[in-house]
Q: What sequence folds into this?
């Protein structure tokens, strides 16, 4: 195992050095990771970002686009032949067609290469012509990212932590009941093992639907071709003995197999090569689901950032591979709020990741937080209510298509009004309710040179890749 780990490390180091030399001598490549937890809008973000980089009329916040230095943008075959291509064209057609609808969410890793022909800025512009910068966008489920924390855990430690969370959530009652009277020291019975794994999977799906973010192992939610395999047929167990041939011993073995055969290959193949990262967060959904969902989200975001090995990339940086040197935490669905509340949403996003950001900043990585909408689905209105002006948003409801106006409640100016009761384990917000509606994408009439309408997608692009386009 030690020799294998050394070989993996050296292999990643050689790959990193090769990539560095290629970028310095030929055409630079930016590998942008895009992830987020369920319903955060990863597919919509990537589709709208690519569309707006190809037609840059709405990208005034991206300096290279505003200055006209991006002369062309075009899709090219991706460099990784074994990774599925992100289905940009079909997703864009879904979002911008005559009867638009939201595309299907991310269920596996996919990739897309967008190449930008860029004129250099400043003095260099007089000495060299345009250069090509490749943007390789890697899309992967946030549920898989949470699994990276399992690499530092044993089965007993993970079981204790997972069961504590299940016991604290109403959705975990069914699985906890399954464990009553269970003799984990008895000889392995595959039907009993499958029943426990199914019970744990059912709990994870219910917890995710209830708004919880930390639901591991992530492949239980998105199994793909691993469904039904022994690597996904285990569950956490109470502490106790684990004699040879017992259910407890086999579950511990399968947990280790999950780490070595599922999580580590993902890390080696995709995650360890990322330069820049955006983490999309449905903060409004967590707020609507209550204090416990907000605290669970805060802890999940801290765990996610701990997986990035943040720090600045340098040529021959280390044999450990690349380090993510810019990370953006973006609260999505800002179009569900009137613009006068966007600053509050950004402040809440910054507070949610403050502990994690301090660790990353200390390591040299640059982090940011903002409120965005990759595809704007609503319009703003001001209505007179009880003698006062009230800012609302109006759009077509996802179910039924009926037009509806929404004011979800005023977010607090001080994020601690939400985070303090969340940390204390409050059951509900003391004196406020935060509503949520699900809007369908609005029919669009795009002019030549314009991408889909958005909120601050251009500023997000400037933070993530703007320095590489100078």
A:
């Amino acid at each position: 195992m030690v020799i294998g780990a050394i070989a993996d490390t050296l292999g990643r180091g050689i790959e990193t050095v090769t990539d560095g030399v290629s970028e310095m001598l030929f055409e630079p490549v930016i590998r942008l990771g895009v992830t987020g937890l369920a319903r955060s809008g990863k597919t919509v973000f990537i589709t709208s970002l690519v569309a707006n980089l190809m037609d840059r009329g709405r990208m005034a916040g991206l300096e290279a686009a505003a200055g006209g230095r991006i002369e062309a943008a075009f899709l090219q075959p991706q460099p990784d032949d074994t990774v599925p291509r992100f289905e940009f064209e079909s997703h864009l057609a879904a979002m911008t067609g005559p009867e638009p609808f939201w595309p299907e969410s991310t269920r596996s890793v996919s990739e897309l290469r967008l190449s930008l022909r860029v004129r250099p800025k400043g003095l260099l512009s007089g000495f060299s012509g345009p250069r090509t910068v490749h943007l390789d966008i890697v899309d992967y489920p946030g549920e898989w990212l949470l699994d990276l924390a399992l690499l530092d855990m044993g089965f007993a430690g993970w079981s204790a932590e997972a069961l504590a969370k299940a016991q604290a959530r109403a959705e975990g009652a069914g699985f906890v009941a399954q464990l009553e009277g269970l003799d984990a020291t008895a000889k392995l019975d595959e039907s009993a093992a499958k029943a426990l794994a199914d019970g744990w999977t059912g709990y994870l799906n219910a917890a995710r639907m209830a708004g919880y973010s930390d639901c591991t192992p992530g492949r239980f939610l998105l199994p793909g071709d691993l469904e039904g395999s022994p690597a996904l047929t285990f569950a956490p167990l109470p502490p106790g003995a684990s004699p040879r041939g017992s259910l407890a011993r086999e579950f511990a073995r399968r947990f280790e197999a999950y780490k070595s055969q599922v999580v580590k290959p993902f890390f080696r193949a995709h995650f360890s090569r990322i330069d820049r990262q955006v983490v999309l967060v449905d903060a409004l959904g967590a707020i609507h689901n209550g204090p416990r969902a907000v605290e669970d989200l805060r802890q999940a975001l801290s765990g996610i950032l701990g997986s990035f090995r943040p720090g600045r990339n340098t040529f021959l940086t280390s044999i450990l591979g690349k380090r993510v040197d810019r990370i953006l935490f973006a609260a999505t669905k800002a179009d569900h709020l009137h613009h006068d509340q966007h600053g509050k949403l950004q402040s809440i996003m910054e507070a949610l990741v403050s502990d994690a950001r301090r660790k990353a900043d200390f390591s040299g990585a640059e982090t940011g937080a903002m409120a965005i909408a990759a595809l704007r689905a609503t319009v703003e209105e001001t209505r007179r209510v009880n003698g006062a002006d009230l800012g609302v948003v109006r759009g077509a409801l996802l179910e039924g298509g009926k037009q509806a106006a929404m004011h979800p409640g005023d977010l607090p100016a001080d994020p601690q009004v939400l985070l303090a009761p969340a940390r204390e384990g409050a059951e509900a917000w003391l004196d406020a309710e935060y509503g949520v509606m699900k809007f369908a994408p609005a029919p669009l009439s795009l002019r030549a040179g314009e991408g889909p309408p958005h909120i601050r997608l251009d500023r997000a692009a400037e933070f993530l890749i703007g320095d590489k386009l100078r």
